[in-house]
Each structure stands twice: as C-alpha cells, then as structure tokens.
Amino acid sequence: MTDLYQSQRAMRNMRQAAMQRGVIAILDVGSSKIACLILRFDGPERLREQDGVGSMAGQSSFRVIGAATTRSRGVRFGEISVMNETERAIRTAVQAAQKMANVRVDHVIACFSGAEPRSYGLAGEWELQDSVVTEQDVARVLAACDVPDIGPGREVLHAQPVNFALDHRTGLGDPRGQIGNRLACDMHLLSVEADVIQNLLYCIKRCDLELAGIASSAYVSGVSSLVEDEQELGAACIDMGGGSTGISVFIKKHMIYADAVRMGGDHVTSDISKGLQVPLAVAERIKTKHGGVHATGMDDRDMIEIGADSGDWEKDRRTVSRTELIGIMRPRVEEILEEARARLDAAGFEHLPSQQIVLTGGASQIPGLDGLAARILGQRVRLGRPLRVQGLPQAVTGPAFASAVGLCLFAAHPQDEWWDFDIPAERYPARSLKRALKWFKDNW
Amino acid sequence: MQSLSATPPRRDPAPSRAAYRMQRLWLTPLFRTLMRVGLPAFGIVFLIGIYLASDARRAELAGGFESMIDAFQQRPEFMVSLLSVEGASPGLSDSIREAMALKLPLSSFDIDLGAARQRIETLDAVAKADLRVRSGGVLEVKVTERVPVIVWRSAAGLALLDHDGRRVSMIQTRQDRADLPLVAGDGADLAAAEALELLAAAKPILPRLRGLVRMGERRWDLVLDRGQRILLPTEAPVKALERAIALDQAQKLLDRDVLSIDLRIQDRPVLRLAPFALGELRRSRGIDTSESDL
C-alpha cells in the first residue's frame, strides 16, 4: 500500500524487537511539555503468549524506570513548527530519562496531538468460501473495506477493526473458526497530515532513536483515563492539552471516533497575557496559581499581585482581582468546551448508550472546570486522571500525563491494527515467491 | 519568526548533539565495561611494557630487588656466626666442620641446612645429624656417631663396621681394635647383622674363635684355632651352630682331631678328620688304603 502502511508494519517489528530487548521509551510530544518515560519489560508476562489482557490490565509486564519532562520548544498546536528546537527538547527529555533509568534506549514510541485527525468509519463484506472463518478470510474482509478518499497529503495513523459480524450475528470479538456464510467488518480509520508525521519522524531520527510505534494522543489518553466500564459502555475523553484539545470516543473498548480542537491551555495563557498586559511566563504563573472558572463574591476581594520589573512603580505594583482573572479565562475555556461539544455532536455522540465524558490533560486542572463542563457537555462529566502504572514517579501521575501513561499501555498491549493482519494471498503480485510460500503454508 | 542567523541562547538546557551521543555511548554496557576495566588495564600493561622495554631498566629493577633482599637477609638478626657440634668425638667434630665448609659469619637464609646435613651424613662415622639455627646466631649440629662392633678384613684393608654393616672407619692393624670380633670375605659387611647373631650364639666356643668368613657371599664359616672350621648352611645358620656347639659339649667334638664340621646339609653333618686321625681310624678297622687314592 502506501509508505506509511509499510512503515507501520516495520514499526510493529521494531516494537517486538524492543520488547525482546526489554527497554522501550515513550515520548509524548506536546505543545507545552515533552515527556519521556522509559519502560522495562521484565514482568512475569514478558515472554508469555499474548492471550487476551493479562493480570493488572496487562501492566504487570512493565515498569517505568525513567521519567523526565521538559518544557516543549518549537511545537504549536501539537505540531512541530521549529524542527531543531523540537529536536533539542526531545534530546533534553530523552537524556534526562536515560540518566534516571541508567540505561540506553534505542526504540521509542511517540504520540502527538495535532495534525488535524479525521475519523472515517469503513465497512467491508466477504463471502466465505468454505463456511469457516480463517485468518485469510479476516485479511480479505479487511482488504474489502472501501477506503474513502482521505485527501492528498494525508496518511492513515490508526486503522482498527472495531467489529466483526458473521451473517446476522454482530459484535464478534474474534470471528476466527466460527461458521457462517458472510463475514462483515467495521473499521475505524484515523487519518492525519502526512507532513506532521514526517517532521516528527525526522526529529526522532535526528536523536539517534528508532521509532517503534506512533499513536494519536487523543486515543492514548482515552486508553489511560477511561475506566474499563466507560470504555465498554461508551464514553468520550477530552484531553485538554496546551496547544490542542483531543477528543476520542470509545465503545466496546474500541475507539470509534477521534478529533482535535486546535485550542488549549496556551490560548488561555495568551488571553491572560493580553488582558493583563503581562509576559507569557507571568501569565502562566498567574493562571496556574490563581486561575478558575467560577467567580464567587470572595474572589472580588482576592487581589493578585501581577508584578513587573519595568522600573515604573505604578506598573510594577499593579494588582488584579481574581474575579477579573476568571473573567478573562472563562470565555476561552467555554469556547474550547463548546468546540468540543460541536465535534461530539457532529460525531453523533448523543446516540451512544452511555454518554460519559471524561476531562483530562493539563488544562483540565483549572478549579471549577467540572462545573462549567457539566453545563456545556451534559451532566455526566468527570475529571479523569491516568491509570497508575508500576514505578511511575508521583510527579508524573497528574492528568497532564494522561497521554504518556496511555502510551505505556499502548506499548504493552497495542490494539490490533489493519497492518497487523495477514495480507490476503491475492494481493501479492502474481508469480511472487511470497505468494507461493503463502500457498504452501495455507494448504499444508 | 525567529532569527535564523542568531546565535543560540547562551545557556541552553538541551544537551548538544555530541554530549547526547556521548551519554548514550556511555550508557552502552559493552562500551562502559571497556572503559572502566579494559582501558585502565591496557594502560597499566602498556606503561609497564614501556618501562620494561629497555634492558638497563630491567637489570636495574632486578638489581634493586636483589639488593633489597640481600640487605634484609644480611641483617644481624639473621647472621650465623658460631658452629657448635654436639655428640661427636674431637676428631669427628673437626672433620664435620671441614665437610660443612661454611665461611662464617653467614646469613641463615644462605645456609642450606638440608644440603649441609647430607654432606655431614656422607661421613662414615656419622649415623644421623640434626641441624638447626638457634637464636643468638648459633648453628647447632647434633651428631649421632656410628658404634663399631666388627672388624672386617677385606682386600681394601681392615675396616670397622657397625651393627648394620656400615663402615665406620679404617684401621691400620688388627691390634688397634683387638676387642672386636673379626669377619672376612666378600659381602661380609652386607651380612653383618647375621654375623653378630652367630657371634652371640658362639659364646661357649668364643675363646677358640678366630673369626667368621663369608663364603661366596652366601654363607658363613666359623674359623677356630688349630685350623678348625665349622661350615654353616645358608638357611638358619644360627640353629646349625647351636647344634654343633651341643655336639661339642656332649662329645667334645671340637677337641678331637677334626679339620672341619660340615653342617651345610642339615640332615647329615659331615666331619672331616685330619689325615693322621683318618689313618688311625682305618687301621683300627683293618682297612688298607695304601694302594688307593683315599
């Protein structure tokens, strides 16, 4: 197929190699911070045959041995805008994590939030030849899915089969070996801008690292912050990051929709900076120390020292009440949430049986956000924190690290993607040696 | 847009590419082991090799080492300045000093006590020697002398033997040690113990005994005065001798005119008479032997 299809296959092999070696790095390239975790796969399940999800949701197989975070540079809206700055930031994070782990890592799994993800639902059908579903039939039904026109300059990031149906029975997890006549499959396809991926690949390659996997941060933060029943019954995860806000919808433990709003916490900061006439660093400090979205009477009397070092006494001694600060922050947060609501509505989220919404990401730590979100997104809103994984330092257990932790789980138990299945024999070129081998393998 | 030609900020928290690669290289286990073990080991071996490459330095090193050992060994605590010989007669003591050939004072590290002991024990008169370096720088030699019990007459001359048949010393004349019994014949020294047993058994006839002769390195003859001989067998000679003595005591056998008593065949002792006695015996029996060779 495309280059990316081949490289995704190569990444899967790389991931297997990394698992064999036992050490793999997780890299979350965000707009406000770059996080690097180093995992060691040495648990009891390391060499076990992958048969469903293991004990402790598959987490007992790995342990976080190194963690480092650095302020992101050169990333805007979750996309790389200045390559060498980003490369330096990645180097900083990877070096610090390696130093903590005291081990060298060569394989890295990365995630990013931007690149305008677009979701497509694909469906395919296949008449079974001998009434028993074989691996080849699964491959054929996946190949039979009609690929939509994803547009020029776009690549497939995720392509996950979410449902198999055999005749009139639907919701099959694994159709292999079952008996029927007609196999149908639903597939969720997520496409992103190819340039963004190319930039990220280039940056990681410049750091002497091999990419062993790539994921959308909206997807992986859903994996880590939605609990099991939410994933099963249907829920949306809104990952409010610095530069963009990712939205992912899960049902039956599969992601069925993902999107991103190109707004995030950095926009709130820049609003404060503009509104209060302060530098961005000061605005960020004021936001994190005093920020909120619900003003009360007491906030009128809560005066915040803004400070500056211009030399002008009047300017340097400015104060602002917390109410004013909230007045600046609230419209932007509302705007982000309304945009997310619009995306969810467009995806038909209201038709899901359960409409749980989980807010996570660094920007979800604004006090009172759950109350505001409940007004906009509906009553079933909660703030989510990522799952606890073994060996994770306390400093990186916050909601800002939802996608990093999700990526750990993704590394341990990746969802089956389109490229993990066999290529149907017909798709091999005629007279190919591989095709002959395949024929032998299938018939004997 | 940021300035493309601008120099990077003075203090960049990010590691440079070289530093980053260095750190990754340093975290590589093989490289780490090589650097921490291999490189110092190689350096040490290399420096030692360079130092030892020249002959002069090697010789100097060896010389320095040896002189250090010498200086230690020549300390007064280890010097031996006196040799004391105990348990030896004055003549033997002198010959022991001569045999050891030590130029005292000497460090005790330079004295090979084992070799000195072997040299002393090569002396005939020494049965056993114990050497030790006593405190105070005295080399003490304790000697056990051999006691001569037999005089052995051989082609080489007269020798004194101890009870094992080992030579103790030579003497000039038999009169020097007239108190000791005499043995003769080749191989007599090897059977000295048997000779001593025979001498003990021959006590009743001791006044008449001249000596013992080893015949064919196999058996003994007792030689008495008047040219009489008692020929003893190879096996159980003492028993045969006791038998002869019993015969003598009962019948005064040896007082008669007998040349030899042959006890070599146990069942049939044979007497050999002197010619006059033989003639008289035949004459009394009426046997004329004038025509025959007998």
Automatic annotation (TrEMBL), chain A:
Protein's UniProt keywords contain Cell cycle: yes
Record flagged with keyword Transmembrane: no
Domain SHS2: 24-225
Subcellular location: Cell membrane
Keywords: Cell cycle, Cell division, Cell membrane, Membrane
A Pfam family: SHS2_FTSA
Primary localization: membrane
GO annotation terms (biological process): FtsZ-dependent cytokinesis
Superkingdom per UniProt: Bacteria
Membrane-topology annotation of the record: Peripheral membrane protein
Known partners and oligomeric status: Self-interacts. Interacts with FtsZ.
Function according to Swiss-Prot or TrEMBL: Cell division protein that is involved in the assembly of the Z ring. May serve as a membrane anchor for the Z ring.
Family: Belongs to the FtsA/MreB family.
Protein name (database record): Cell division protein FtsA
Phylogenetic placement of the source organism: Bacteria, Pseudomonadati, Pseudomonadota, Alphaproteobacteria, Rhodobacterales
Gene: ftsA
UniProtKB/TrEMBL annotation, chain B:
Domain POTRA residue range list: 78-146
One Gene Ontology CC term in the entry: plasma membrane
Gene3D superfamilies in UniProt: Cell division protein FtsQ/DivIB
Pfam families attached to this UniProt entry: FtsQ_DivIB_C (PF03799), POTRA_1 (PF08478)
Keywords, ordered alphabetically: Cell cycle, Cell division, Cell inner membrane, Cell membrane, Membrane, Transmembrane, Transmembrane helix
GO BP: any one term: cell septum assembly
Principal subcellular localisation of the protein: membrane
Record has Repeat as a keyword: no
InterPro entries: Cell_div_FtsQ/DivIB_C, FtsQ, FtsQ_C_sf, POTRA, POTRA_FtsQ_type
Subcellular location: Cell inner membrane; Membrane
Keyword hit for Cell division: yes
Spans through the membrane: 34-53
Membrane disposition: Single-pass type II membrane protein
Family: Belongs to the FtsQ/DivIB family. FtsQ subfamily.
Task of the protein: Essential cell division protein.
PANTHER family in UniProt: CELL DIVISION PROTEIN FTSQ
Protein name: Cell division protein FtsQ
Organism, scientific name: Cereibacter changlensis JA139
Gene that encodes the chain: ftsQ
